[in-house]
Write a structure and sequence with these properties.
The chain is α/β, with parallel strands linked by helices. The chain has one domain: Divalent-metal-dependent TIM barrel enzymes (TIM Barrel, Alpha-Beta Barrel), CATH 3.20.20. It is built from ten helices and eight strands. Helix 2 links the parallel strand 2 and strand 3. Helix 1 crosses helix 10 and helix 5 packs parallel to helix 7. The longest helix is centred in the last third of the chain and has 24 residues. It comes from Ruminiclostridium papyrosolvens C7. GO terms for molecular function: isomerase activity.
């Protein structure tokens, strides 16, 4: 197991800027100690980035060249997502834009050598509440063309467990629903990304859900919270039971990376503090990886 972090460790800015350039984020992650990264494409849906423009391929080549110089590889990436997690869109143009940037994310992931591309499942409850079969069908309907493109380009797909807020059901928040969705593909290239913070919002003990998912877990989003808000803090800053959760993960024979998604830890910091914080995050992650191997 390697320690990794999402490029979004530096993406959120206190000074009001909406996006830290990818090349800057990658360099700063490397300076903090990280050599394995998760490339975040989620910014596509919230702001414009260098990869939003028509010359995106040239910029992707720059990222590849710089990453090779720095000795960085990309094990994961995160597809853009609809913030509502529901199969509805403000307009047909918004939906078309989503597909455009999703396909672009797949192609860039392939260029970067990404193994697992994380996607957010949709919840379909327009016709009937709590209809898991309808949600499975809709995720196929919506994602199958994207997944086909990904598999063709040697990129596998990991569906992420979602947050179930008190006032709304979310399909795939429960492990059994993720099993149902992933198993419907009958393809080992479709798996699960387990987000510990999301799990902590739903379960008193997420170890049992990790055991239920078993070998389906192929990627991680490592972050912590207090079970109330999706804070995306470092391990041990919240209430996730890391020792028990990591022991359960090890029992699944997990072979992927220990990948941070901890932008909440740095997002409100002045830029001058983030690099210090990132080095601290690297130290905490090294401890977690050692803990995993010692269990």
């Amino acid at each position: 197991m390697r320690l990794a972090t999402s490029t979004n460790l530096f993406s959120k800015r206190r000074d009001g800027g909406l996006h830290t350039p990818y090349l800057e984020s990658i360099r700063r992650c490397r300076e903090a100690g990280f050599t394995t990264l998760d490339f975040s494409f989620t910014e596509f849906f919230f702001t414009r980035t260098e990869l939003s423009e028509d010359d995106w391929q040239s910029y992707a080549d720059e990222i590849i060249n710089e990453s090779q110089k720095l000795g960085i590889d990309f094990s994961q990436a995160h597809l853009p997502y609809n913030p509502g997690y529901m199969p509805d869109w403000k307009s047909d143009l918004e939906k078309e834009d989503y597909y455009k940037f999703a396909r672009r994310s797949v192609l860039i992931s392939s260029m970067l050598g990404v193994k697992w591309l994380v996607v957010h499942p949709f919840t379909q409850c327009i016709q009937k509440e709590f209809d898991d079969e309808a949600s499975v069908r809709y995720n196929h309907e919506f994602y199958d063309s994207i997944i086909e493109l990904a598999l063709k380009n040697r990129v596998s797909i990991a569906y992420e467990n979602m947050i179930e807020y008190p006032q709304r059901r979310k399909f795939s928040a429960r492990a059994e629903e993720l099993c149902m969705l992933v198993d419907s593909y009958k393809d080992s290239r479709i798996g699960v990304c387990w987000d510990f913070g999301h799990g902590n919002r739903l379960y008193y003990d997420e170890a049992n859900s990790i055991k239920t998912l078993g070998s389906r877990i192929v990627a991680l989003h490592v972050n912590d919270n207090t079970g109330i808000s999706d804070l995306h803090f470092l391990p041990f800053m919240g209430t996730v039971g890391w020792e028990k959760a990591l022991k359960a993960l090890k029992a699944t024979n997990y072979t992927g990376d220990f990948t941070y998604e901890v932008y909440g830890f740095t997002k409100n910091m002045p830029e001058s503090m983030k690099d210090i914080a990132a080095k601290y995050a690297y130290g905490v992650g090294q401890y977690c990886v050692s803990l995993y191997h010692s269990l």
